[in-house]
Specification:
heterodimer, A: 668 residues, alpha+beta, 18 helices, B: 222 residues, three-stranded antiparallel beta sheet, 8 helices
Chain lengths: 668, 222
């Protein structure tokens, strides 16, 4: 189990951006009580800076290069490196004095241990570090990073940074974890696997990647050398024909190899389309079966109301005839017979003998109700039929793309291999080479042998890693039910649609070549206007913006709740209102408040501009009952931060909005 | 493939499924399993697919959608409907019920209408490959008949392939379509290693041992 950071207190002193409340203690001081803390401000008052200060207190001047650029983690190396001088000076650049005397101190818990970390804001240098009040050497890597790993229960500082960026901190530039299979795979790895297993995963995967890269580099170098040698050789030959043929073949070989590489790079996407296409068809078939049975039941009821005989088989056959227009007895399509029966039902006549039943008082009301049900069910079935047909069409397209892709790869492989033989044959027909060429050939043979050796090693390593991933995926799958249930608990408060997580391992490549691996991951299924049953939503663009944010939030909360050693954690959300549809605001506040119930012990830190709307009042209302409580939970940057020109000039307007949102006696 | 050829292949596929259904129902009858409730029949069909390699036969359907309530093949259900219409099968206790996901499904039990079904079964027995298939299905039905109704209904929660934790509910259990991941057949074959004195189990014995293993798992055994 992992220990998630639980924030207790933040002190920022000597920093020009936060001079402090007039007449009070200088600087910014926040006690993070269990539950909500709301940082309230306006543009330029330092909300996001505050969040970044907390983040940097926890990471120090280190980060994973490229992590903040929203790139797919894919095969990225997840090791941290020191920040550049300009990145370290990010806080210094915001104030006139370069933050020379500014420092920030964070008190937080990891498991049962209380940690204090203090840094100079000018360059993030560590100035104090203690655990359970015992001061430790202020060494970044030897003590701070090592102790964070030990106390959190992760094996690398890269994992610690991933944990902060993908779970704890909800930055504005975030990637939605629920739709980011490559990030999920890493998060699940270190959240739910023992430290040593999580470490082995990273190291083995890295070993495969490095070998893949070495093999490909050497292979490319070999190819280049071979071409160079062939070029020297045909320069030495007098025959124009051989030279021209070699030139042409070399050119074609280059084009085909380039094409092959591109196609191989697209395999993951084409395969994924095919997998999702098949799944959609199978689910649509099940859905169709359900709707069909619903209509069949409705028709049976309608027929049964007029049926003089209780023969089940006959009733069943008639219902099928009227539902599908196909005769189960002779297997012919019989729309006329179906229409005839329908007319008899419509005219309230016995479906078999045509006797007028309209006089039978007991039957009429029942049949009317049943007939209406039939109409509804028929409309539902038509809708599902259309969906099934479109699913089949998409699947056929995806399958045919896959087949043509696969065939082209095979063809290219075969062409390249044939052409290679022809090129070798031509080269052998060249006149005896000079000593240097002999030497080159012999070196190339050694190089070729080395490429083969690397390829064999890579195959062995890949195979071992594949078995390892399969084993650990089984361990992770045992946690999936708990995560799904917890997610349901958070999501149902927010979404009106049925929304659920599905354990759905995703295919990905380790390196740039080789077969695909099944890596552990969740996908999302949700109902929608056109989808009465939940359907797979494979990308964030398939849900609305409000849904996207809160589905991802619910997912993070679920992971934290299940993975955290004491189910307690911290969530830091920068400006959540920006992506929320007005009608979802109260629901969002409910979900956030549930996470932030003080008894749970979680810390929820939200920054918000002073904007009109229901989010701030709803959150405050749910989190506090008294003015004192309110002042403890609201950090008012209007009174703490250095005012911007806008705040100075429009203070009265800001104050009016503040009064509207918070009522009198708001925090300070 | 032209559209006529595609239609022909589809018809043949449908016929093949119906033949296997008649044989499934016939052998289930010999094992005393008839009338058989719909979901149990689908489970039996699934087992006949997933365990076919034990008999050195290909699965008729190499994939199934993983559902909370166990395997269910919409195409097979359509074929059952057809068999009822043709008078080859009879449905008893017909009803429509809401399943665990609050969705409508058919409820009822099937059995063969002997006067019509026997003509088909008799003719099938003239062919070697169908006789082989019938022997496999018969062994499977006899093996499964040792399970109580409750154990039968829970069997899928313990079947090595269907309950594979790597495949979540709502995903495709693919054991013989695009990949070869048949843990059930592997487990059944593994019983060879457990027999004393290096003896080898017959395919029939492997089926019985596998079903006994399911029973033991349902009752908490490992």
């Amino acid at each position: 189990m992992i220990n998630l950071p639980v924030l207790d207190r933040l002190d920022v002193t000597g920093y020009g951006l936060y001079p402090g409340v007039a007449g009070g203690e200088p600087g910014l001081h926040i006690d993070f009580n269990p539950g909500l803390t709301l940082i309230l401000g306006a543009n330029g008052l330092g909300k996001s800076t505050l969040v970044t200060i907390i983040y940097r207190l926890l990471t120090g001047p280190f980060d994973i290069p490229g992590l903040a650029t929203r790139a797919d983690l894919g095969n990225m190396r997840l090791t941290t490196t020191a920040l550049s001088a300009s990145s370290r000076a990010v806080f210094a650049q915001r104030v006139l004095d370069g933050g020379r005397s500014a420092s920030a101190r964070l008190t937080f818990k990891l498991g049962t241990h209380s940690i204090v970390v203090e840094r100079r804001l000018s360059d993030l240098t560590l100035t104090h570090f203690s655990i359970d009040t015992n001061p430790l050497a202020v060494s970044e890597q030897e003590t701070f990073q090592a102790e964070m790993l030990r106390l959190a229960g992760v094996w690398s500082f890269g994992d610690w940074v991933l944990l902060l960026r993908h779970l704890i901190f909800y930055f504005e530039d975030r990637r939605a974890l629920v739709w980011d299979a490559s990030a999920q795979r890493q998060i699940l790895r270190f959240l739910f696997l023992p430290v040593e297993t999580a470490r082995k995963w990273t190291e083995d995967e890295r070993a495969v990647l490095e070998l893949d890269s070495r093999m490909r580099n050497l292979s490319a170098a070999l190819y280049k050398e071979e071409r160079a040698l062939a070029s020297s050789e045909f320069k030495a030959v007098a025959g124009v024909d051989v030279r021209q043929e070699l030139q042409t073949l070399e050119k074609l070989q280059g084009i085909d190899q380039e094409r092959l590489e591109r196609l191989e790079g697209e395999v993951v996407e084409v395969e994924s389309e095919r997998q999702h296409g098949r799944l959609r068809v199978m689910k649509a078939e099940q859905e169709r079966e359900t709707r069909f049975r619903e209509l069949e039941r409705a028709k049976l009821t309608a027929i049964g109301a007029r049926f003089p005989d209780r023969s089940e088989t006959a009733r069943y056959i008639l219902a099928q005839l009227m539902t599908e227009h196909s005769c189960l007895v002779c297997d012919h399509v019989a729309p006329q017979a179906a229409a005839d029966y329908a007319t008899r039902i419509d005219h309230k006549k016995c479906i078999v003998c045509g006797t007028d039943l309209s006089a039978d008082e007991a039957v009429v009301p029942a049949t009317d109700v049943a007939d209406k049900r039939v109409e509804r069910a028929a409309a539902d079935l038509n809708a599902v039929d259309a969906d099934l047909s479109s699913a089949r069409q998409s699947f056929d397209d995806a399958e045919s793309r896959y087949q043509s892709h696969f065939n082209e790869i095979q063809e290219l492989n075969s062409k390249i291999s044939d052409r290679s033989r022809r090129i070798d044959g031509l080269v052998r027909r060249l006149p005896p080479a000079e000593a240097e060429m002999h030497q080159q050939r012999s070196e190339l043979a050694t190089m070729r042998g080395r490429v083969e050796q690397l390829r064999a090693e890579l195959t062995t390593k890949r195979s071992a890693f594949r078995s390892f991933v399969e084993d650990v995926s089984r361990q992770l799958a045992t946690q999936s039910e708990g995560i799904k249930k917890t997610f349901d608990g958070f999501a149902e408060g927010f979404l009106l649609e049925t929304c659920r997580l599905v354990w759905a391992p995703q295919k990905a490549r380790v390196g740039e070549s080789g077969d695909l691996f099944d890596f552990p991951a969740f996908e999302l299924e949700m109902t929608g206007g056109d989808f009465p049953s939940p359907v797979r939503r494979t990308g964030p663009e398939q849900v609305s913006e409000s849904q996207r944010e809160f589905i991802d939030l619910a997912f993070r909360m679920a992971l934290m709740t299940v993975a955290g050693s004491s189910a307690v954690g911290t969530l830091v959300i920068d400006a959540p209102e920006s992506s929320l549809d007005a009608v979802f605001v109260t629901r969002a506040a409910n979900v956030l408040s549930r996470f932030a119930e003080p008894l749970r012990g979680n810390r929820l830190l939200i920054t918000s501009n002073l904007v009109e709307g229901r989010l701030i009042p709803s959150l405050i209302q749910k989190a506090t009952t008294t003015d004192t409580e309110r002042s403890q939970r609201i950090v008012d940057l209007f009174s703490i931060a250095a005012p911007t020109a806008a705040v100075r000039q429009l203070r009265a307007e800001y104050e009016a909005i503040r009064q509207t949102l918070l009522g009198t006696g708001g925090g300070g | 493939m032209t559209s006529i050829e595609q239609q022909r292949a589809k018809d043949l596929g449908g016929l093949q499924r119906r033949i296997r259904l008649v044989m499934l129902l016939d052998t289930a009858g010999q094992a005393g399993l008839l009338p058989i409730p719909i979901l149990r029949l689908h489970t039996l069909a699934y087992l006949s697919n997933v365990l076919a390699p034990v008999w050195d036969m290909p699965a008729l359907e190499g994939k199934v959608l993983k559902r909370q309530g166990g395997p269910f093949y919409p195409a097979l259900q359509h074929d059952l409907d057809r068999l009822v219409g043709m008078g080859v099968a009879v449905i008893l206790g017909l009803d429509h019920v809401l399943d665990e996901d609050n969705r409508w499904r058919l409820e009822g039990s099937y059995q063969l209408n002997r006067p019509f079904a026997d003509r088909i079964v008799d003719r099938l027995s003239d062919f070697e490959s169908e006789r082989r298939l019938a022997t496999f299905l018969q062994e499977l039905a006899f093996a499964v008949s040792t399970l109580s109704d409750d154990d039968f209904d829970q069997a899928m929660t313990e079947d090595a392939t269907y309950s594979d934790p790597l495949i979540g509910v709502g995903n495709v259990v693919d054991f013989a379509e695009w990949q070869r991941r048949n843990y059930s057949a592997n487990a059944a074959r593994y019983f060879d290693n457990l027999l004393p004195g290096g003896a080898r189990a017959t395919p029939g014995e492997k089926l019985h041992l596998y079903v006994r293993h399911l029973h033991s798992r349902v009752h908490g055994g490992r």
